[in-house]
Design a protein that fits this description.
The chain is built from 23 helices and no strands. The chain is mostly helical. The longest helix is centred in the C-terminal third of the chain and has 34 residues.
Length: 532
Amino acid sequence: MRIAPIVAWWRHFGERPWTYDGRLGLRLIVASCLTTIVIAFLGPSTVTLNVGPATSPLPPWFIPADVGARFGLPLPEWVVVPALWVGLVVGAVGLLVAWRAIELGWRPRIHRMFWLGVALSGGTALVPPLTSADVLMYAAYGRLQTQGFNPYDITPAEIFRQAYDPVLVWTERPWQDTPSVYGPIASATQWLANVLGGDSMHDVVFWLQLMNAVPFLVICAVMIKLAHGNAAVQTRSVLFTVVNPLLIWAVVAGAHNEALTLVFAVMALWFVRRSAFVTGLFIGLAGAVKVSLVFYGLALIWGYRHDWRKVVGLCVGAVLPIAVLYGFFAPEALFAAGRNTGYISGGSWAPWFWQVLAWVVGDPLARSLTGWTGWLGMVVIAWMLSRVLPWLPAPGAVGPAQSDPLTITLRTAVILCTAWLVTSPYSLPWYDLIAWVPLALMVPNRLDWLLVLRGTALSVAYVTGRTVGFSDPMLFLGSTVVRDTLCTAVQWFVLAAIVHWFWTTSREWPTREFVATGFRQLFRRSEAAGRP
């Protein structure tokens, strides 16, 4: 097949005015989010969680089942699932169109764009969560705490199988027999939501949605402040966070606690140029929500690496909240995340690799080899990204980008988080938040559209992510065809695209002299670091 005509057609297609019409991009994003809100408002279905009866006027608001039955609700799976698929693709197209418009000079009013994102995110948080039952498990872990049980040792199923519980009864498979893997701060929010919500799963879910949606909005507000003085980067930061339809879907519509984790890391970024110790405190708090934020901690150490005093201040600040929260309040939580090792998620790159290995060496060894392949792949992809990602000083930098701690931290966080996301055998769409946020303060590059492609594929794949309610034909289409075949193929394409980017741009490998020079320069005070 001849490639040149296809490339020429693609370039001609990209010259059409609508492909860089920023206003059109925002309209498509609004249409995508409204699709999600309307389907959720119609009430429990195969894609919308059943959070129990509304016992108060609090959100989430939806049409009750008895009322909806008079109007033919719930809608069948062959209506709601394709509608969400189309809505997500429309939103992704809108994101790309708005991204191109910004790259070509479109500068909407930042505050209007921000409040549009607040309205879309807020509206999404006022209706029931969709497709993932994780928020029900958050509620269950908090319920266990209010009943005097330890969620790191006791599972929800151990309780509700013995006696009726008005909250635990609404949980769904497959995680009912799994202890909590979340840090002490996450556990504290789950407990508080249960204290505020009482015996109503509906009310508990509202408080959990609020505790996740508010941090999501705070993240965007901080990113706008970090981009102060650069209209292009500010616009990009709003688009990639609070107006990003893929994140609104994955984080807000699913009520996942990724934003609660990241809000502390973003506050750490805010203090990078101000105080290493305070930066450490916030990154330590982030680690007390989820241990995956270790990548931000490594990025901060790398950003301060030319000033050992700041590295020490950072580490001391980080250790304090981790030692107190894990050591005194939840020592079991420090090792809880280790239970996730060995998992392989549908839609990641790993299922094909694991299935072939399992046929040859058996399942246990195949899972182990797949996990180690992921870690090795992460190192390789991180190196490749480090060679091709552009350098440009973050807004407010004094001096070259290579000596500004915030610029170094942002770039390193993008490299480490992206490498982990694309090589981890267990990867889900809401995980991408940790890469989108630092990427927002960088110049446009290939990683932008690769993350859009990856996020769209995973989001579409997990529309049928629940394990209850779907018919066999829909499970075949949604799981076997979309998730296990098409989405996995997209993840392999993303990996291949990063390798191609490196191979055609840099092809610089870590020679012995390169590594030796790097170690000699480690903790050597740079000229910028030595300034008062």
